[in-house]
Amino acid sequence: MQLSNQYRTINTNSEGSYSELSSKFLAFAYPINSESDINTYKTQLKKLHHKAVHIVFAYRLGINNEIEKSSDDGEPAGSSGLPVLNVLRSHQLTNIAICVVRYYGGKKLGIPGLIRAYKTAAENAIENNTVIIKDIFHHYSVSVEEQYFNNLIHALNQMGASVFEIEYGTQCNFNIRIKAEQKENLETLIEKFWQAELTMVKGE
Q1: DSSP H helical segments within 91-145, as ranges?
Q2: Least confident of 164-168, 186-190, 199-203
Q3: What pTM does this model have?
Q4: Domain boundaries, the chain
Q5: pLDDT tens readout for residues 46-97
Q6: Torsion angle, CA of 74/53/11/17, rounded to 10 degrees?
Q7: Phi/psi at 122 (5° precision)
Q8: Is residue 188 within a helix (H) or strand (E), and if so which, with residue range?
Q9: Please, which residues have CB within 8 angstroms of residue 95's CB and are 6 or more apart in sequence?
Q10: Most CB atoms within 10 A, among 20, 103, 121, 204?
């Protein structure tokens, strides 16, 4: 189960490989922040491995795995991209992509053989990496009367919040970045400042 206030990912690129019946499977794991990242890596791999017959990929994005995609790239349906995606799922990883380059060795592996090959190559890429746990942060916009501003800022600093983009006036507006685990404490704090308004902008 995904941790409610944290998520698991990798912090660097890594590689893994697997060979069977003269076919070579080269897996490349990448930390990603957007779908454009995976497109960049696929383009690079196509240039480096232009003689490869397939470049299969799978990725997961978002702190709640909002995006999951995979591609068999011409391999039999369900034999390659899905096994790689299932590796990411089994390790509960997100913000990660794995591409597996296949060099055909002249002998067919069959569906079970392909599933085994792509899964093993992907597993090896993860084993050669370091899984890290990152805190989830929330961004909020806050509006508070000037008379409460200093006390509220002090309290937010005590909670470990980062305060930025401050607009001073009779009504002070600013943004904060704070760990998701502080959500209830933050809401309780804001309730004490009756004129304060709290709006969640995004999570990361």
Answers
A1: 110-127
A2: 199-203
A3: 0.81
A4: 6-134, 136-203
A5: 999 999 999 999 999 998 778 999 999 999 999 999 999 999 999 999 999 9
A6: 120
A7: -65, -45
A8: helix 183-192
A9: 7, 9, 31, 32, 33, 60, 61, 62
A10: 121
CATH class given for the domain over 6-134: alpha beta
What tokens appear for 14 in the block? 């890594």
Pick the CATH number of 136-203 from 3.30.2270.10, 3.30.70.240, 3.30.200.20, 3.40.390.30: 3.30.70.240
Residues 144-156, mean pLDDT to the nearest whole number: 91
User: Any idea what the Cα angle at residue 189 is, between residues 145 and 166, rounded to 5°?
Assistant: 45
Residue 180 and residue 136 in contact, taking contact as beta carbons nearer than 8 Å: yes
Distances (CA, A) of 187 to 45, 148, 201: 47, 16, 14
pLDDT above 70 covers a percentage of the chain that reads 96
Residue 1 pLDDT > 70, yes or no? no
